[in-house]
Amino acid sequence: MSNHTATTITVDRPDSSSKVGLAVGIIVAFLIIGSIFIYFIWFKRRKRSSESKIPRPLPAVKLPTTTAIHKPVLKVDTTPKLAPSKAPTPPVDIRLPPISSYSPAPRVLFHKPPSSIRYPCRLTISDEYVKSLTQLRPYLNTRYKGGYCYCTKHYPNDRSDTDLKAGSTYAVPRGWTAYLINVDPVFAKVKNIWAEWYTCYYGTTVNKLQMILRNRFIPFHGDMLLGGELFTTHLDDKEHCHTSPSIKYASDQYFSPRTIFTTSDNHVYYIQVVLQCKQAPDSVIPGYKYINNDVIPNNHVEWKSAARSSVLPHKLLIRVLERDTEKY
Ligand SMILES: [Zn+2]
Fold it and tell me: Can the keyword Membrane be found in this entry's annotation (predicted)?
């Protein structure tokens, strides 16, 4: 009997404990498989998102990824910038009111009957004077020995008092002699100055000529030039460069004071200098000035510019006057 009970006990125990062990094992295995599955899904998602977004800064992959990012950024940057600049009013317009508002008057307005004033030929005197300005020699065009004379003999009175360049009229410098100034051909070509820039005059003094020609453009008051020279003007307006399509206006003694020149045969003359210039059309700020009996209308006489490098001298004009007469 005791034997029988002993056997039933030994059979019962291992059976129940193995069931529990099996259940625990299944649960543990399920948990392990589940966590592996969840980790696998998480890893997949992370990989996919890392492909679509900017990758984290990984030192080894940095170079290829930055170039990959750089390209799309450039594409995005340029297209929207170009697109709006075409459609709305360009901001450049703000800078241009003087250009668009100023349109030089047509040539027909400037026709006048031939003048009765006679301008004596002073070509030999002005040639001698220019030769005496040895410091200017490098800046003048040496292919032409003498000047272009606008006396009555060389430019008769029945010829036009005005000329037209780039759609802008300017006065022919009657009574003056012109000498060509060397102009930087590259700048002239790039800016197309002979076809597009207006012709104007800039009255000045002999002692400023070298400074101006060395600077290529008409400097502004207060400009520190090459060689440490400070450019100054005696004009009240220090903010602008004053020019004019009228030789009569530019040669006013306010702009172009007279100096004395004694020739080799001891004749004493008054000398005036004016620079004939090319001026960027968009730099012209027009103004009104009353000048009696000028070939340029009063509302086109006074020009000024606030832009540097906008007025380029290309001819040196000399006027020789008898010392004791005030003919002009
Ligand atoms: Zn002459």
Answer: yes
Provide the number of structural domains found in the chain. Answer: 2
CA of 61 to the centre of ligand 1 (A): 81
Same domain, 242 and 309: yes
- Which parts of the chain sit beneath pLDDT 70? 1-17, 44, 46-102, 104-115, 144, 325-328
Quick check: is 17 in a domain? Answer: yes
- How many A from CA of 49 to the centre of ligand 1? 87
Instruction: Give me the residues near ligand 1 (ion), CB cutoff below 5 Å.
Output: 121, 123, 149, 151, 154
pLDDT confidence of residue 146: 75
In 20-42, which positions are buried (b, 16+ CB within 10 angstroms) versus exposed (e)?
eeeeeeeeeeeeeeeeeeeeeee
Ligand 1 centre to CA of 209 (Å) is 23
CA–CA separation, 76 vs 194, rounded Å? Answer: 41
Calpha distance 212→243 (Å, rounded): 14
- Residue-number span of the structural domain to which 258 is assigned: 117-322
Q: What is the pTM of this model?
A: 0.67
What's the CA-to-centroid distance between 189 and ligand 1, angstroms? 32
